[in-house]
Amino acid sequence: MYPQRLERRIHRCGRGQKNGFLLETSLLSAAVFLGTNPVAVKYAVEGIPPLPFVALRFTLAGLLVLVFLRLWGQGGGLKRKDLLPMAALGLIGVGVNNVLFTFGVDLTSASNTALIYATPPLWGMLLGFALGQERPKVRGAIGVVLALLGVGVIVYGGLGASLAGDLLVAGAAICWGSYTAFSTLLLRRYSPLVVAAYTMFVAGLGVIPLASFDFVRTDWGTVGLDVWAALAYSTLFVAAFGFAAWQGGISRIGANRVLVYQYLIVLTGVASGVVFFGENLGANKLLGGAIILVGVYLARRQ
Predict the structure, then answer these.
(1) How far is residue 265's CA from residue 114's CA, in Å, rounded to a whole number?
(2) Which of 43, 138, 197, 252 fits a 20 to 30 Å CA distance from 57?
(3) pTM for the complete prediction?
(4) With left for phi above 0 and alpha for psi between -120 and 50, is residue 75 left, alpha or beta?
């Protein structure tokens, strides 16, 4: 019996290591994809107006994940009582979020976007306080103040050319933080993949009426291959895979442990802006980014 128990223990250990490796790989990949998304979005909106871009991106991404759920027999049905909460979560947390994000990225730099968009954990935490999900502590309050100060430094440095874009991205970060806070209620009953699929699909459908005028007036025959490639990248790798993998990581190991990957997103986003667009890292970006990351760390490690 002893050799059999030992063999079962070794088997479980090996399976745990394999699952841990897969989780680590998926989170690292998702962080890189999410970090490079501002660059992809900037490329895409050069040929596709922002509203049609958001509508196409999330309708297709949601459909892809729903098809995956069906093919792999993972269900995906919703209870009637959850239809309205899921729709609201998708419209605000994904739809409004990405409309603001896409317009913002078009008006500001990819590096500014990456730095400001590091703040959703703070907004999620503040909403968690308001909903009674978390108890505020001194370190958390200091972290929030620091992160807001860091955003202020970056926005102040962008007064003029990129101020509007920076503020739109900040609004998108608040929407994403609300998604993180409110999705925990649905994640108690549904898998991260199901929540990601429905919220993305609802977001895409919700933006279609707003995008109808731009859909009609856009000359789709002149849209270049590079623009379609950027849309495909942002749809497949960032939304369909990255979004779902990120939510899955949070549900399995918790928001605090996923925090280190948030820093990788920021680093990748800033580096991508420098490499692909030759963006300059001024003193305000370096200082503001450092303050934001310290603030996020303090707030989420309370």
Answers:
(1) 7
(2) 252
(3) 0.82
(4) left
Q: Which residues are CB-neighbours of 230 under 8 A, at least 6 positions away? A: 40, 41, 43, 44
Alpha-carbon distance 130 to 124, whole Å? Answer: 10
| 180 neighbors 254 (Cβ within 8 angstroms) | no
Q: Which residues contact 133 (CB under 8 A, 6 or more apart)?
A: 181, 184
State the chain's mean pLDDT as an integer. Answer: 82
Structure tokens at 163: 């101020």
What is the average pLDDT across 104-110? Answer: 90
| Cα–Cα distance measured from residue 113 to residue 169, given in angstroms and rounded to the nearest whole number | 6
Q: Are 224 and 176 in contact (CB under 8 A)?
A: no
Tokens 């049905």 locate to: 77
Confidence of residue 158 (pLDDT cuts 50, 70, 90): low
Nearest to 300 by CA among 136, 152, 130: 136
Give the torsion through C-alpha atoms of 264, 268, 274, 275, to 10 deg: 140
Of 62, 61, 53, 98, residue with least CA distance to 220: 53
Residues 269 and 295: their CA atoms lie apart, in Å, by 19
Q: pLDDT tens, 217-246? A: 999 999 999 999 999 999 999 999 988 787
Q: Which alpha helices (DSSP H) does the chain contain, by range?
A: 2-44, 50-71, 83-88, 97-107, 110-116, 120-131, 138-157, 163-186, 192-217, 225-233, 244-253, 255-277, 283-300
SS (H, E, C) 203-218: HHHHHHHHHHHHHHHC
Q: What mean pLDDT is predicted for residues 38-59?
A: 95
Distance CA 219, CA 45 (A): 13
76: left (phi over 0), alpha (psi -120 to 50) or beta: left
